[in-house]
Amino acid sequence: MSIQKIAKLAGVSVATVSRVLNNSDSVKSKNRERVLEAIRESNYQPNLLARQLRTSRSSMILVMVSNIANPFCADVVKGIEEEAEMNGYRILLCNSGSDIERSKSSLGLLSGKMVDGIITMDAFSRLPDLSTMIGQTPWVQCAEYADAGDVSCVGINDTDASEFAIRHLLERGCKRVALINHDLSYKYAQLRERGYKSVLSQQGNDFEAIEYASELSFHAGRSAMENLLRAPLKPDAVFAVSDTLAAGAMRAIDDAGMKVPQDIAVIGFDGTELAEMVSPQLTTIEQPSRDIGRHAVSLLLRKIDNPEAPAERLMMGWRFIARASA
Amino acid sequence: MSIQKIAKLAGVSVATVSRVLNNSDSVKSKNRERVLEAIRESNYQPNLLARQLRTSRSSMILVMVSNIANPFCADVVKGIEEEAEMNGYRILLCNSGSDIERSKSSLGLLSGKMVDGIITMDAFSRLPDLSTMIGQTPWVQCAEYADAGDVSCVGINDTDASEFAIRHLLERGCKRVALINHDLSYKYAQLRERGYKSVLSQQGNDFEAIEYASELSFHAGRSAMENLLRAPLKPDAVFAVSDTLAAGAMRAIDDAGMKVPQDIAVIGFDGTELAEMVSPQLTTIEQPSRDIGRHAVSLLLRKIDNPEAPAERLMMGWRFIARASA
DNA sequence: CTGAAAGCGCTTACAG
DNA sequence: CTGAAAGCGCTTACAG
Questions:
Q1: Is B134 on the interface with A (CB under 8 A)?
Q2: Rounded-to-integer distance, Cα B209 and Cα B176, Å
Q3: Which bin fits B56, alpha (ψ -120 to 50), beta or left (φ > 0)?
Q4: B12 touches strand D (CB under 7 A)
Q5: Burial (Cβ within 10 Å: 0-12, 13-18, ≥19) of residue B132
Q6: Domains of chain A
Q7: Distance in Å, alpha carbon of B226 to nearest chain A alpha carbon
Q8: Is the CB of A58 under 7 A from strand D?
Q9: What keywords does the record list, in alphabetical order (chains A, B) (predicted)?
Q10: B120 in Cβ contact with B127 (< 8 Å)
């Protein structure tokens, strides 16, 4: 089935068929009816590839995340999908697993014109060949930042949020606060670490213990905590940069026969549902994940519609949620 | 940048350029070099849309899930993505949220030739216009079944698994076993309910309490459990058809001031990491989620390569994991 | 309001 | 081994 067949069936030209398909122009209503009828009876569906090739618009955006199993990622993706759908866009998901090869091959979709733009939650510094691509390309970073390049981003003030969490632990009487961070190729990891360090030094507290998780998973959190517990001087509090990591830390603490928060207080990050699932329930920093996703799409669409538009930097609010774990 | 420009640059025809791009045929090595050189210096990337239009192959598959935030879904999707990548395919994710409209519009990608096939985890009976599409279309159901139509599927024996779980609870001494099920438009929900009922009737146990969750989420599980707890005769055990639902149930039990498993034993389903995150850790039925995803892709690819191939039905193994919750 | 025609960027018989 | 040409299925000035 092609537009040709429909044209023949309806006794009009392909141009006319195309016009009713795009309900553009004014087509004489009798012709419109005949076309519509032909479409109906032949169950015709336009070929999207042809359309996109012709218009050089794909109405698809590529979303690259490092781990879709992280509930925060999933929430952001939901927001992205909602807003994309409202604007007639679809998303292509690439679950990079922080794998450079996979990321690189995904980026081929962009140069191959399969997608109109990209939203990344991955660390920028890990994305290859970026310098040659950015600038020409609608791109937004989501819950993460780009130092260089003309790239929009939407996120929260990570340093502030981190400082707030650490201060809370200190005020609570904790003396030895450890940090379970994501690897430092992520800008947000750098910022949160900065917050952690700055509060400690302000308060003249010289205990410092940092573990880096290679991914935002329960397992990574658990082994990070196990490492912390192996040290001669154990922490009495731990701030993990994701709820998933925090859940892993809590499991490790439990396995070691210690209690949260009595022996070790725990604070997470993200404010996902997971924080309510664990016991004791997790104190955490809530990010407006859905909205972050939605705004990422808005920024991206603006850039797609107007490539000259300058990069924007959107800072969203965050909220500290006090629960039983700290 | 188009193949034309490269041809001009290299001083050959577009056909030759195309040949080296597809490293088909034998191109004289001097010409190959010149083309490769031209490609390099102009940073050329082939337009995928044009290629796909011409070859009528998109190398993309549509994946429809009801809720990507459900860790089981996320794991299956990871498996799908891995296997797809190994075969040069990409995935388009549609997080339907069980929304008919969204599902329907996604299906347009198929008829629009944007994807070569579909993998669904959604309930079949909810997908609209299926009868007109199936048969012509490479399609596989994943962790779910189709009664009708020529559709392949891969999953586990849900009835057996469910019976095993219920029997475990009964053997443990539980007298009043409730079920938190997904809505019955899902075939697997029907099968697991059948397992639940058959064991109870075999054993002459006439307590029956079933709650239906509208989605596989923590919240839905929590409210289902709250409903069960409102009944005059409370259950002393509950079998939830997903770990996420079970986590919600545990939260409700905790909120009601009761203990798992002493007051109410809980068994989940899926064997996701979540089962290790909650306290007490969750007894559950493990599905080989990653492999389910991988095999779904294999089946699909076989169908794409050979449309005449009959539908296949793949049954995977499952495993009961006993932990503290039951 | 409508149609003939060009063209988006590829691939692939076909002929040489 | 290579090129000219047709064609995938659309959209969109352009002329009428």
A1: no
A2: 8
A3: left
A4: yes
A5: exposed
A6: 3-46 (1.10.260.40), 56-156+289-316 (3.40.50.2300), 158-286 (3.40.50.2300)
A7: 15
A8: no
A9: DNA-binding, Transcription, Transcription regulation
A10: yes
Do residue A85 and residue B102 have CB atoms under 8 angstroms apart? yes
Alpha helix segments (H runs only) across chain B: 3-10, 14-21, 29-42, 48-55, 71-86, 100-111, 130-133, 158-171, 187-202, 218-230, 243-255, 274-277, 289-305
Residue nearest D2 (alpha carbon to C1'): B16
**Residues 153 to 172 of A: which have CB under 8 A from any B CB?**
none
- pLDDT tens digits, B193-212: 999 999 999 999 999 999 99
Q: Do residues B118 and B87 lie in contact, with contact meaning Cβ atoms separated by under 8 Å?
A: no
**H-run or E-run covering A302:** helix A289-305
Q: How far is CA A114 from CA A70, B51, B117, B236, B258, in A?
A: 27, 11, 17, 54, 54
Transcribe B221-241 into DSSP letters.
HHHHHHHHHHSSS--SEEEES
Mean pLDDT of A176-187: 95
Dihedral sign (CA B257, B262, B264, B265): positive
Give residue-wise pLDDT tens across range B123-165.
877 776 666 666 678 999 999 987 766 789 999 999 999 999 9
Question: Residue A112 is nearest to which of B46, B71, B248, comparing CB atoms?
Answer: B46
Which pLDDT belongs to residue B288?
Answer: 98
Return the number of CB contacts < 8 Å for A and B. 126
* Structure-model confidence comparison of residues A166 and B41, the more confident one: A166
Contacts of B316 (CB under 8 A, 6+ apart): B154, B155, B156, B287, B288, B291, B292, B295
Q: What confidence tier does B24 reach under pLDDT thresholds 50, 70, 90? A: confident
Q: Please state, in angstroms and rounded to a whole number, the distance separating the CA atoms of residues B224 and B221.
A: 5
C-alpha triplet B261, B267, B269: angle, nearest 5°: 160
d(CA B224, CA B179): 10
Q: Which of residues 13-52 of A touch strand D (CB under 7 A)?
A: 14-15, 17-19, 21-22, 24, 44-47, 50-51
Quick: pLDDT tens for A219-239.
999 999 999 999 999 999 999
Within 10 Å of residue A317's Cβ, how many Cβ atoms? 11
